[in-house]
Design a protein that fits this description.
The chain is of the alpha/beta class. It has nine helices and 18 strands. α2 packs across α3 and α3 packs across α8.
Length: about 325
């Protein structure tokens, strides 16, 4: 039987209401004991790395999870990381950059209700995660939730309460789990030269959502304190021109200061394509902006943190951003 390490980090799955709202209080051993069926499919061990509401997850937490997996990598055949759902897509994306080309599976999961509730989705999600962790060919970072297996770079939480909380954005689910069986849809990548572990994230990222009538003051105000700006534009991507060029000047100030500017879309699916309209094509060409295309916001932010810890050179940032990692970017 394969040996799988479950790393618990907190979240709703491990929460109890002790009179002042839900907060993580259930241990890793209690989580594992609540799903006794796991013992039938693998040798499972559990450890408590942290016990946080995922709202409190930070880039330093991503590094702690990646480092624990690195330290334990040779002793286990795979890993299951239990995590709160609110920031799980960020952590899944971050781990996809911090642990690349892993021939062993690193499976993230959580739940919308505590594992100690009768009507919870937690036990099924945990069991499915272990099923995928022992599945032949499972590799790299993925997120298992509600019977879906999603690449870590493609996951997004789209519902706050429903059990089908996560979707794979602009990329197929790589597998599903039905009646206890894993049904793979897509083959894995070549991991013969892996795993590759990275131990750094850096940079301060500002995310702005463009709204009608927006003015550039916040761009100018935040410029000294941030290393990169991610602008969630309208539709396929563009910048209003009827403001006398004020917003364009705001972006220009960032570029001239040597900061990174990435344009993405606030539309949930199908990504950006700035060459379609004049309002997008002109500003992208003029300022040599990075375009996120179909990347999720979570992947954009975490990839930038991974890149900016390595370099601040604008040309090198551009180059690294466009190198695909776990199918995170598909250019239009």
């Amino acid at each position: 039987m394969k040996r799988i390490l479950m790393i618990a980090t907190g979240g709703t799955i491990a929460s109890l209401d002790q009179g002042d709202g839900l907060s993580p209080a259930i241990t890793s051993a209690q989580l594992l004991s609540a799903v006794p069926e796991v013992s039938e499919i693998c040798e499972a061990e559990a450890m408590q790395l942290m016990n946080l509401d995922s709202t409190n997850m930070t880039p330093e937490c991503w590094l702690r999870i990646a480092e624990q997996i690195r330290l334990s990598y040779d002793a286990y055949d795979g890993f299951v990381v239990t995590h709160g759902t609110d920031t799980m897509a960020y952590t899944a994306a971050a781990l996809s950059y911090l642990i690349q080309k892993s021939p062993k599976p690193i499976v993230m999961t959580g739940s919308q209700k505590s594992i100690f509730l009768r009507d919870t989705d937690a036990r099924q999600n945990v069991l499915d995660s272990f099923r995928y962790a022992v599945f032949p060919g499972a590799q790299g970072v993925s997120l298992v939730f509600d019977g879906k297996v999603i690449l870590g770079t493609r996951a997004r939480k789209e519902r706050t309460k429903s059990f089908n909380a996560f979707s794979s954005v602009d990329y197929p689910e790589i597998a599903v789990i039905r009646s206890g069986k894993v049904i793979p849809y897509l083959p894995g990548e070549d991991c013969s030269d892996g795993p590759r572990f990275y131990s750094f994230v850096g940079g301060k990222i500002l995310v702005l959502t463009l709204v009608p009538g927006m003015t550039p003051e916040v761009m100018h105000h935040c410029l000294p304190d941030y290393d990169a700006l991610v602008l969630q534009s309208f539709g396929v991507g563009g910048l209003p021109e009827n403001d006398g060029g004020a917003l364009a000047d705001g972006l220009r100030a960032w570029v001239e200061a040597g900061k990174t500017v990435v344009v993405t879309t606030q539309v949930p699916y199908e990504g950006s394509d700035m060459k379609v309209y004049h309002v997008g094509q002109k500003i992208k060409k003029e300022l040599n902006l990075i375009e996120a295309y179909s990347m999720t916001l979570e992947a954009v932010v975490t990839k930038l943190r991974w890149i900016l810890a390595r370099t601040r050179d604008p040309k090198e940032v551009h180059r690294l951003f466009y190198i695909p990692v776990r199918h995170d970017i598909i250019e239009a």
